Amino acid sequence: MTVEDLKRLLAPVCAGLTECAGELNRIDAQLGDGDIGITVTEAASRIRSAMDGLPQDLGKALLLVAQSITKSRASSYGTLLATGLMAMARHAMGQTEIAIDELPAMLESAVNRMAARGGSRLGEKTVLDAVDAIRIALLDVKPGDSAARLADAAVDEALRHFKDKPCKQGRARIFADKSVGLDDPGMVAIKKIVAAMASA
């Protein structure tokens, strides 16, 4: 994976997040503030503006993407995404390309940093569970496999697994009983991201 690969993935991701903003807001309104679609749309706009100027150093490129998110609308979700990307950036700093089999370690760093920043842990029906599902799926990536498709399938499975469980973190924990049978908005947003990558 190089920065050019990253750019090719970011373009459909930004477009996809913008298109599904209304859907994400509706899902979020069931359990939260109903603004996650606004968060990801503004982040996508900032990322688009930064894409042409991304350096060839993959770590620095990921850091700039993370910083673009922090410059957009302030929200806990945006902060968590940026935190995860910053952790991945540290892993890739100084490299112009990384092997796909390095992604699980990068994602593990992201999960750990996001958990520390959000005061959450795996199993609480949050974005962490979606990201960790991707990490686990990519442990078995083989030559010729599509990492994006494996990630997409993994998040689908995570959404199914947690759908009938209560949310135990964030604003949604206030409505724990109501959250049973509903998807976590942050997990759905991750699904939209990896689905856009898979389609690309």
Précis, in short:
The protein is an all-alpha fold and 200 residues long.
Give the SSE layout.
Elements: H1 3-19, H2 21-29, H3 36-51, H4 58-70, H5 76-92, H6 103-118, H7 127-138, H8 147-163, H9 176-179, H10 185-199
Helix pairs in contact: 1-3, 1-10, 2-3, 2-10, 3-4, 4-5, 5-6, 6-7, 7-8, 7-10, 8-10
Count of DSSP E strands?
Answer: 0
Looking at the structure, the CATH topology is Serine Threonine Protein Phosphatase 5, Tetratricopeptide repeat
* CATH-defined architecture: Alpha Horseshoe
Class inferred from helices and paired strands: mainly alpha
Strand content: under 5%
Explain what this protein looks like in three dimensions.
The chain has 200 residues and is an all-alpha fold. The chain has a single domain, classed as Serine Threonine Protein Phosphatase 5, Tetratricopeptide repeat (Alpha Horseshoe), CATH 1.25.40. The protein has ten helices and no strands. It has helices spanning 3-19, 21-29, 36-51, 58-70, 76-92, 103-118, 127-138, 147-163, 176-179, 185-199. The longest helix is centred in the N-terminal third of the chain and has 17 residues, at 3-19. The two termini are 14 Å apart.
